[in-house]
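Per your request, structure below.
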C-alpha cells in the first residue's frame, strides 16, 4: 500500500486531496502538514511514497520544501498542486526535482492519475500544464528556426540521446532502463549536459535545447 503525505496551509484543500483519493484502497494517507516545515519531520517519521504539496505555502513554500526533501531523499516523489495563476512556479519546481504537477481546479480528475504515474517512476503533468508548456516551447521554436545555436556538436552521442530523453519528459530511472546504464551514469551525463549548455537545471537545458534546435521536438 502506497503511503501518501499531504501538505497545504488550507484544511479545505487537504480535504479536497483526500476526497480525490478516497476510492483508492491501495493508497493510505499517513501524515499531513500546514506548510513546508513539516516535510522533513514527516519524511523521518513516516517515509511516504508520495508527497502532495501546494506550491504556495507560508514559512516554507512548496519549491523550498521540495529542494529540502530531495536533498535528503534524492528519489522522493513529489506532486505539486497549483492554481493557474501560479505558473511562475513551474520551472522552479521542475528544477527542484518535482515529478508531478496538478491544477487545483481539476484535482479530482487528475490527482489519482498523477499518483499512479509517479509510483511507476513517470513524470506527470496534467493537460492544462502540458498544453501551456507545449505552447511556450512552440513559440521558442518558431522564434529561433532561422537562427539555430550550433552547440549540439559539443555533446557526445550518448549525451545527445540523454538530452533527447529529457525533452520527452523521461525520468532518470526510465533513461537508465532504456539505455541499460546505472542511475549514477545518467546523473553524470546530465551534469555534463548542464555544464556544456551553461544551464543550472535539466528544465532550462530542455528549454534551451528546443529553442536552439539541438534536439528534435
Amino acid at each position: 500500500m502506497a503511503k501518501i503525505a499531504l501538505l497545504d496551509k488550507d484544511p479545505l484543500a487537504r480535504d479536497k486531496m483526500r476526497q480525490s483519493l478516497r476510492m483508492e484502497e491501495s493508497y493510505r494517507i499517513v501524515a499531513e502538514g500546514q506548510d513546508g516545515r513539516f516535510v522533513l519531520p514527516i519524511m523521518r517519521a513516516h517515509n511516504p511514497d508520495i508527497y502532495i504539496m501546494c506550491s504556495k505555502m507560508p514559512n516554507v513554500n512548496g519549491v523550498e520544501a521540495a529542494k529540502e526533501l530531495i536533498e535528503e531523499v534524492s528519489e522522493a516523489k513529489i506532486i505539486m498542486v497549483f492554481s493557474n495563476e501560479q505558473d511562475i512556479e513551474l520551472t522552479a519546481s521542475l528544477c527542484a526535482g518535482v515529478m508531478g504537477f496538478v491544477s487545483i481546479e481539476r484535482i479530482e480528475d487528475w490527482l489519482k492519475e498523477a499518483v499512479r504515474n509517479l509510483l511507476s517512476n513517470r513524470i506527470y503533468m496534467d493537460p492544462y500544464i502540458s498544453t501551456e508548456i507545449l505552447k511556450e516551447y512552440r513559440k521558442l521554436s518558431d522564434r529561433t528556426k532561422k537562427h539555430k545555436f550550433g552547440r549540439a556538436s559539443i555533446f557526445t552521442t550518448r549525451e545527445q540521446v540523454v538530452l533527447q530523453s529529457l525533452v520527452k519528459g523521461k525520468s532518470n530511472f526510465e533513461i537508465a532502463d532504456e539505455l541499460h546504464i546505472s542511475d549514477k551514469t545518467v546523473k553524470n551525463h546530465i551534469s555534463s549536459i548542464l555544464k556544456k549548455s551553461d544551464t543550472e537545471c535539466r528544465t532550462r537545458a530542455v528549454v534551451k535545447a528546443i529553442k536552439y534546435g539541438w534536439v528534435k521536438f
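The chain is about 50% helix and 15% strand.

Regards,
D.
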